[in-house]
Amino acid sequence: MCAKEYKQDKRGKTRFVRLDYSLLHEWERLALSPTAQALLLRLCMRFNGKNNGRIYLPSREAGDALGISRNTVCKYYQELETKGFIVATRRASLGLEGKGRATEWRLTHLHAPDGTPPTCDYRQK
């Protein structure tokens, strides 16, 4: 897909995902699987600068994007959470009307909306 096909912000600029080399080195050190890396990138794409802690990506949608089943996606969410790259802030639930709500995540390498600095939990693993 060409960058022109993506929505632009008010200033006419396209969005991007920032990945520090320190984060990429942690992927290697912790032997993060390629599919988990791709899932983490998908979660990073959902970050808009203000929503860390409220980032959601339903497993069905993630599975479609990654070309795997939605049940397999849960394995990679668990890998990211175990290795400290993401933290669940609100777990998935099924509402009274039968409409489900996906888990909301916080990316540990990014600051929180309230100004709290990144926790980088993966460095303690």
TrEMBL record:
* Entries under InterPro entries matching the protein: WH-like_DNA-bd_sf, WH_DNA-bd_sf
Q: What is this protein called?
A: Helix-turn-helix domain-containing protein
UniProt organism field? Donghicola eburneus
